Amino acid sequence: MAALAARIVECRRCPRLVAWRERVAREKRASFQDQDYWGRPVPGFGDVGARVLVVGLAPAAHGGNRTGRMFTGDRSGDWLYRALHRAGFANQPASVARGDGLVLEGAYVTAPVRCAPPANKPTPAERDACRPWLEAELDLLTGVRVVVALGAFAWAQALDVFEGRGHPVPRPRPRFAHGGEARLGDALTLLGSYHPSQQNTFTGTLTEPMFDAVWARARELAGG
Length: 224
What we know:
By secondary structure, the protein is α/β, with parallel strands linked by helices.
């Protein structure tokens, strides 16, 4: 996995995303002016023996694109890692920087797109160009039994990727819903959750009890 991560961080396949991530890293947010931004693709993070795979959308411009770790240094990450800690997947509730001591047990966090996209909206071509990195991670994450998709984008990508890997997808094709479940064969279940973005958490669309219920179900399905 370390060798794969080293390849991911050198990727320059998508000119628009390269330009954006590097521009953000140069210009910075005022509150982070004294920090060195990562400004590169962000590899996945967590336990290579994970039974639960967490799939987001892409690194945040001033979160993962700044810190170099998925869901680290922004409010979405605050929500995610607090919930993973409560569910017993993380050793601490906070994720502020690489090297802050965070360890995941039984879970691995990744995204279909590895570079921060403008307005958090990657193009279909950018999504497809990044897909081989997720495929390569899945080749190494052989113990995954549950996939938690954070948002409709992640849900759709998970269905496409796992169907391409030979997992049967129900027909009609399952639609994304918070708390939704789709069995992808006997050994894999896809769970849906609203993304812990400020748009969802500030408005009450996603509450902590709603989020906790997803992780409790993930743990149940993963076998403890």
